[in-house]
Amino acid sequence: MYKNKINNFKILFLVAMAVELASCHVTKNIYTPPKVDTLNILRSEGGNNLDTATIANIPWKEYFKDPKLQALIGEGLKNNIDQQIAITRIKEAEATLDMSRAATLPS
To answer: 3-state SS of 14-26?
Structure first.
């Protein structure tokens, strides 16, 4: 009875090893990636720009001709809290950079 269990275990072990070795078989790569033409994929590359004058290139004072509207936009820019916070953070980052650069100088 004991020998029968050992034989069954040996057979099971050999079958498991055969399955494991068969699963490690290296096959050839049948997937080939598609060829994609990446040349001139962006609008700014290759001279495909049909529109050379966009609204982004026009200063806002030239775009908005009304003096009242220009005054309102100027006041809005002057009192823009988010813009002031961003400017303050930029100044803070510049000061931190200056301090870190000063730390490398001899004392």
So the answer is: HHHHHHHHHHCCC
User: Cα 48 to the chain's mean position, in Å?
Assistant: 25
In residues, how long is the chain?
107
Regions in the chain scoring below 50 on pLDDT: none
Give tens-digit pLDDT for 46-68.
Answer: 555 555 667 888 888 999 999 99
Q: Are residues 46 and 40 in contact, defined by beta-carbon separation less than 8 angstroms?
A: yes
CA distances, 9 to each of 1, 14, 15, 84, 91 (Å): 13, 9, 10, 77, 75
Phi-psi region of 19 (alpha: psi -120 to 50; beta: other; left: phi over 0): alpha
DSSP-derived secondary structure letter, 35: P
